Amino acid sequence: MNRISFLILLMFFSKTTHAQIKNKAFDSLLNVMVTKAVPTVGCEEIKKMKTVVFLDTREKKEYEVSHLKDARWVGFDTFSLKNVASIPKDANIVVYCSIGVRSGKIGEKLMQAGYKNVHNFYGSIFEWVNQGNPVYDMSGKQTNKIHAYNWKWGVWCNKGEKVYN
Fold first, then answer.
1. Of 3-12, 17-26, 87-96, which one has max mean pLDDT?
2. What is the pLDDT of residues 25-42, one digit of tens each?
3. 156 Cβ partners below 8 Å, 6+ apart?
4. CA of 62: how far to CAs of 92, 125, 133, in Å?
5. Which of 17, 39, 44, 148 could be disulfide-bonded to 154 (CB atoms 3.0-4.6 Å)?
6. What is the span of the domain harbouring residue 146?
7. Active site residue 97
């Protein structure tokens, strides 16, 4: 099955859409891949949050290219609850990755560990950038670069300068 046929099937079988995702094919993919075990939030909800702890669940090299402002890197393969022990169990936490799959899995671990207000960023950093929101490099400066994971997943990131290394 080629990619276009797969996307058409995803759109056909997808029952719900997340209103904030602008690209319907991307939304259909997310609807199938992102866990429903962790409540999701989108760009607009995140912008309205007053106090939030952002946890970046991508690999270190992805985080180093760019991340959300004040995000804390926790990784995916190397994730440990020890690295979040200083975060209060009732803190408002938003986990994110490239599209929301890895962050959903980390969100589940956080909820199982007793964190009460965990949200998975639906569309994650790709949708954040697609909607024109800023990302920051390791020096804290705004950047146009975005780690696109690999060329297959990078097609879902439509803005910014894609980095693959």
1. 87-96
2. 888 888 888 888 999 999
3. 23, 26, 29, 99, 126
4. 23, 11, 17
5. 148
6. 22-163
7. yes
DSSP 40: E
From 21, 84, 93, 97, the catalytic residue:
97
Residue 126, classified by CB atoms within 10 Å of its CB into exposed (0-12), middle (13-18) or buried (19+), is buried
Looking at residue 22, its pLDDT comes to 79
Question: Which CATH number does the domain housing residue 62 bear?
Answer: 3.40.250.10
Count of C-beta atoms within a 10 Å radius of residue 93: 24
In a domain, 156, yes or no: yes
Task: Tally the domains of the chain.
Answer: 1
Q: Is residue 7 part of a domain?
A: no
98 near 149, Cβ under 8 Å?
Answer: yes
